[in-house]
Design goal:
Length: about 725
């Protein structure tokens, strides 16, 4: 006989504050991981120690027996990553090493990049396959491990991979290098990488003699002596290591006067650096030399405004995504909205966090297939619980928005405490379904008999519980309907929430009102226990997702704390199922341990991770912030938001062309449009949420807001005429 009393989960759920073990689990999965594959890149950590790792021989031995490690990036066609100076946009690949004491990682030995033109801009980077080697220095402080015969290294790498769009990616790697014997399997890859590196030019104290860079107005004039014979007479590619000095996309005007190479390159209109010494790589046909050149002259002042480029780039236009459709306006039929809400509520029953609740309730019909009156009352009570709970949640959302809160559907999941509590609740449900415990054994007999004495109340509370467990699952497909609901009058909005609840309750209601459904169910038997335990796994899967959500809000420490508390809480639940003295001893110790753990790490669960402040790029543009658009609109001021990032080449193109166009800027001023810039260079949950609300998951995105009208989402590649037409409609 199944002793499943689902609504009583609400009582013991209050004794757990949710928690989990994500960091430990992630380490276990990556402890021997050398390859990370994405749709754009295959990244692999390689090692090269032809004579083994020099142990106990000191730094001199290490110099003679080099140990190299490196990240190899194999790009899919048309995709690229970036050099140490990425050019007009992009970000260089970064490597963070975790090494034993006494082992020091050097800098990346960057291979010679290639110039990647994109419209009127250009980047420096790599296509195809590239290996980024790093030397390891084994110092006398290194002590070989007492157990094992390997040098264990770990790497966390981040890279930006771009085509026309850009995707930030990262990976964690681990590698074991034998302390004895050689590791030469990757010799060919490292030798090729060494040959691709620029060689040092003949220098005096690191500076090429008789060679300078002269500042001539808005030009840099190179005069370089003493370059190798192999380069003389050839057209050279110039790769400055200092970013944002020259106009990257410009073609140098160069010539050879015997052994002297001369060239002139325009300065960048938005120059940010004024070095006194310019390290550059001069290359031709895959061969290159690095030199450091003295800068002679006075740097000109940087122009106050952004430079304006002329013609739009047809290649970018051809590859730009189509303009997003504007959100639905107030003329949308209320009946269509209600129909969408009903269908959405029905689909909710298939979600992994809802289906177990519905399935267990319906299976309960199998035990009392002939009690039609009880079925009808149970179905109506369950439906009432669902509808009232959904309506109450919607009313709370509307009340908070009316009070000035900038919220959307799913606002409850923006609170780490709510996410943690739901994770705890779902863990309890999963443990109960798995058969670890029965709630009746924890409760007083008067409470334990509640279901038998008040079956209607029990069904009502099950409906409340169904809404509680359904709320995390609504975002993927209910956001549009419920997002539209909050823009309707209060009565219509509440009707949308109520109909959504009706859709969620409809399968159970239909089963309770149609006797044929109950009679069609299999007869009670052992299959019911198996089915119940099977339903535990969707609940645990939902817990995994909730821990991930919390990790996005509070960082890895918050996710790890939640995992640890969930495991500790599960142990508490298990000890309460014991009998006699064992229960007294183990339960006391487990509860004390849970309390200490909560005091020690519980604060990590509710503490938001630090975020990088957003800054505007000029006085005209102000930093975007959550709620700022709403406040400006409430004051009657139209708003234009540029969702951008430093690594997004399309963003930089639009910034230098359309958004710097004098006519466009004049129209912004004439219409008194407030300009906001949302900088997504570093991950920002608030900006991510704003993009998701617009149906986007990347940048650039350009949105024009006006009070009383739906937001206008413009093209990814902005045109002057498009922006001016949108402004003219204000």
């Amino acid at each position: 006989m199944i002793r499943f009393r689902l609504p009583r989960i609400l009582f013991p759920a209050l004794i757990l504050i949710a928690g989990l073990v994500h960091s430990t689990l992630g380490w276990a999965q990556n402890s021997s991981k050398t390859v990370v594959t994405t749709p754009q890149v295959r990244a692999e950590l390689l090692a090269f120690a032809p004579q083994g790792v020099p142990v106990g021989l000191g730094e001199a031995a290490a110099a003679k027996q080099p140990v190299w490690v490196g990240l190899q990036l194999a790009h899919k066609p048309e995709w690229h990553t970036y050099w140490k100076n990425s050019g007009d946009s992009g970000l260089p690949t970064t490597l963070e090493w975790t090494l034993p004491p006494g082992v020091i990682a050097g800098d990346i030995a960057w291979p010679i990049p290639k110039k990647i033109p994109i419209g009127s801009l250009a980047n420096y980077g790599y296509e195809g396959t590239v290996l980024l080697p790093v030397p390891l220095t084994i110092t006398p402080d290194f002590k070989p491990p007492l157990t094992g015969h390997t040098l264990d290294i770990k790497l966390k790498a981040s890279w930006l991979v771009c085509r026309k769009e850009c995707i930030p990616e990262e990976g964690e790697f681990a590698l074991q290098i034998p302390l004895k014997g050689s590791t030469a399997l990757n010799g060919a890859a490292f030798e090729a990488a060494f040959k691709a590196q620029p060689r040092p030019a003949l220098t005096t104290q690191g500076i090429l003699p008789d060679s300078v860079v002269r500042i001539d107005g808005n030009l840099l004039r190179f005069s370089v002596q003493g370059l190798p014979v192999e380069l003389r007479g050839k057209t050279l590619d110039v790769f400055p290591e200092t970013p944002e000095v020259i106009e990257t996309a410009a073609t140098p005007k160069q010539a050879w006067n015997g052994a002297e190479w001369t060239a002139s390159i325009p300065l960048a209109p938005q120059r940010l650096n004024s070095p006194s010494l310019m390290p550059v790589v001069l290359a031709s046909n895959g061969q290159g030399w690095r030199a450091e050149l003295k800068v002679v002259g006075e740097w000109p002042k940087v122009a106050a405004g952004p430079g304006v480029s002329s013609a739009p780039d047809t290649a970018l236009k051809a590859n730009a995504a189509a303009t997003a459709a504007a959100p639905a306006g107030g003329s949308t039929s209320l009946m269509l909205v209600l129909l969408g809400a009903l269908l959405g509520g029905l689909i909710l029953n298939l979600m992994p966090c809802v289906f177990p609740v519905l399935a267990i309730k319906v299976v309960g019909f199998a035990r009392h297939a002939d009690d039609r009156r009880a079925h009808r009352l149970s179905g109506l009570a369950y439906t009432a619980g669902v509808i009232l709970s959904f309506t109450a949640l919607g009313a709370l959302l509307l009340a908070l928005r009316a009070a000035g809160e900038s919220l959307g559907w799913g606002f409850q999941l923006q609170s780490p405490g709510v996410v943690a509590a739901l994770a705890a609740l779902f863990t309890l449900i999963g443990l109960n379904l798995a058969g670890l415990f029965e709630f009746g054994s924890f409760l007083p007999s008067s409470v334990a008999s509640l279901q038998a004495r008040h079956p209607v109340l029990d069904a009502f509370l099950t409906g409340v519980l169904a809404v509680a467990v359904a709320s995390p699952c609504t975002a993927p497909f209910m956001g549009a309907s419920l997002g539209l609901a909050v823009s309707l009058p209060a009565a219509q909005a509440l009707a949308v929430f109520a109909i959504t609840g009706l859709g969620l309750a409809l399968p159970y209601l239909a089963a309770s009102l149609v006797p044929a459904v109950a009679r069609a169910l299999p007869r009670p038997g052992a299959w019911m226990q198996t089915f119940r335990r099977l339903m535990a796994f969707p609940m645990f899967a939902t817990v995994v997702w909730l821990v991930w959500v919390l990790g996005q809000q509070t960082g890895i420490d918050g996710a790890g704390a939640l995992l640890a508390l969930l495991v500790s809480g599960a142990f508490v639940v298990w000890t309460l199922t014991l009998n006699g003295r064992a229960r007294l001893v183990f339960a006391t110790l487990s509860i004390a341990g849970f309390a200490l753990l909560t005091l020690g790490i519980g604060q990590n669960i509710v503490k938001f991770a630090d975020s990088t402040p957003v800054s505007g790029s000029a006085e005209r543009w102000q930093p975007w912030a959550t709620g700022k658009v709403d406040s400006l609109l409430a004051a009657g001021q139209p708003v234009f938001v540029d969702f951008t990032a430093a690594w997004c080449v399309t963003c930089q193109y639009n910034k230098k062309t359309t958004l710097a166009n004098a006519a466009v800027l004049a129209d912004f001023d004439a219409k008194k449009v407030h300009l906001l810039r949302a900088d997504w260079t570093r991950r920002d949950p608030a900006i991510t949420a704003a993009l998701s609300a617009l149906g986007r998951n990347g940048v650039p995105v350009y949105v024009l807001y006006q009070k009383g009208r739906a937001p206008v989402v413009l093209s990814e590649i902005l045109g002057v005429d498009e922006v001016r037409s949108a402004l003219a409609a204000l």
